[in-house]
TrEMBL record, chains A, B, C, D:
Organism: Candidatus Kaiserbacteria bacterium GW2011_GWA2_58_9
Domain (Toprim) ranges: 79-181
Homology family: Belongs to the RecR family.
Annotated protein name in UniProt: Recombination protein RecR
Recorded name of the encoding gene: recR
Secretion signal span: none
Length: 202, 202, 202, 202
């Protein structure tokens, strides 16, 4: 396997990339200047050096501090904790501009076939909740902010159960509201969404 | 224009049909048996003869009775009235199996460019609400069940205003709940939907 | 089944139309004026009255004459006969503006699973070729103008064999040229197309 | 700009990659093992070290030799030279298994807006043709194997003119055959393709 093939096979593991696009990436880099290739190689290596995983919320961030900017911020609402599947979902909640509480990145959703949870940071979440409780006495609500699909629902059910087992009577566990999302037409909405939209009317 | 072209030009007015598919429809009918063509022609004509528009909810239905089965039913909840844009939206609500109130078909949504409402049955809706109030004293809520898009929102705003002008203190006007619809991933959800999902959490 | 359902079930048999779009067609007709519905019903019925199938090329055409305009035309090249699968393919060849010979509509392509040819007018084609030969002594080439897919290729192989069995030494049987079609990029072309494009270079 | 943002902005320059997928690539690398990141960085750097551009055909290849395997091969047909736009197009011709001549990678196609050719290796091609002529006296045909689109056609016209200016009476300049590509249906084919398919029938 030569350098072209080896690099193409690495790109093939990138999310959403097939053999053909992997080859195009290599051709693109072959046509690029040595400076571009060096910058790419260095930036990939820099990830490990410059990016840390926050010891509290588990998200990746850039910086010298022990915890990320959100976890370290005094102005965030310590009574709310949103549990999300991924850094991308955390970023989506943050961009909406309405949430001011804390986060915890679970690292994925439950695989429905295997029902295995070992890839997910469920234990770390429980430890984190207990930790938050001991530091800030006012944690009141854990929001399970998972995608509105069977995997997300199964993950929410599992995590809810584990949190309830902590027997912390003052913590409420909630899930995100369901209903018509922006752009939805009733005619094409599934019965479950219509049901949620009717129940959540106001 | 021969019979093939005339029929193709009629099919071109069908929703979502372009010139090419219109031609395919004609070719399909040319290859069909005379019996199929006769049945189609008769069924089209039968619409006017067999289908009536309900004088209460304005939907199309088949039957001899003056009002449709839903409006005539004693078992429907007379305290709820859902205002929908089209028969198709009414059918979607009905299929969800959770709604047991009455309906009113407005006939469309507001055109944002012209803001004209003359295509919509706003006056008939107001008359219908007054009528329902006089017959069943317990109409308590009008649900504006429009699509979750700018046209639907503008229609809801307009209709809400008109209903409030009736000064019926006992009628609440609601809209469908917004949030994540089935299958939504947070990562791809728009900020408005995430905001609604956070507000509607439970 | 009421008139709405009966008409919807007829539209569901239209090519490319599913249950949902069939329902939309019915709703469209319900909202249309009685005049539109009457015109549609009459146009469907008019097909049988005004449209004939040409006794020579088997295509559908409008008119009183026994044969269609193309078959009746003295200016068409009688030495060429293009055999096509459908009226739509005939129309595509005609629109290209380069073909001036005659046509024969076979009525479809071979089904690869059953290999049955009884739906196809193979016998009529052979009779038509003999007939042309006796009337115009100069029929020189039969062009098998089928789609460039396995069904088209199998149909061409079968029809070619049958024509060769006629033992008409002066008739050449050809198929359409293969190669890059407009817009094709080499990178995404299949090996068979590239092979044809190389062989057909000029 | 932190390491995550810097790497994402590099991935955004990859062909066909937008901001969202660039972010997903970075998240994928953050979750990957240090070994995977190191291998990627090294493979990118290895391109410059291990991959050379062939001094004859200008394609990228892996090896110590001065020319690529195809140019160095004694078994390739020296009478044919295919001029292609890119390494990917060369690979497509090679995969078809029918072409046994030489290649020259032009480096792109003409930009129709600017009509500039300075990005393309037109001069190198002419030098290469003269060079081939002096070494192998039997170069007989230059095949302009460009995509079947306006850019490809304009490039072919330009390159053909330049080659004819060389006044080498024994060199024939050809282009790839046009026609129905595999899977094409006549009904949806453009007139130009049908014209080529009719002309190229056999």
């Amino acid at each position: 396997m030569d350098a072209i093939e080896r690099l193409a096979s690495l790109f093939e593991h990138f999310p959403g990339i097939g053999p053909r696009q992997a080859e195009r990436f290599v051709q693109f880099l072959l046509r690029s200047s040595p400076g571009v290739r060096r910058e790419l190689a260095e930036s990939v290596q820099a990830l490990a050096r410059d990016i840390r995983q926050c010891s509290e919320c588990m998200r990746f961030y850039s910086g010298e501090s022990k915890t990320c900017g959100i976890c370290a911020s005094a102005s965030r609402d310590k009574s709310l904790l949103a549990v999300v599947a991924s850094d991308a979902d955390l970023a989506a909640l943050e961009k909406s501009g309405t949430y001011r509480g804390g986060y915890f990145v679970l690292g994925g959703t439950l695989d429905l076939a295997s029902e295995k949870t070992d890839r997910l940071r469920v234990k770390q979440l429980l430890t984190h909740i207990n930790d938050l409780r001991s530091r800030y006495t006012d944690l009141k609500e854990v929001i399970l902010a998972f995608p509105a699909n069977p995997e997300g629902d199964a993950t929410a059910a599992k995590v809810r159960e584990e949190i309830l087992d902590l027997r912390n009577p003052n913590i409420k566990v909630t899930t995100l509201g369901r209903g018509l999302s922006t752009g939805s037409e009733l005619e094409y909405a599934d019965p479950e969404t219509i049901k949620s939209a009717l129940e959540g009317r106001r």
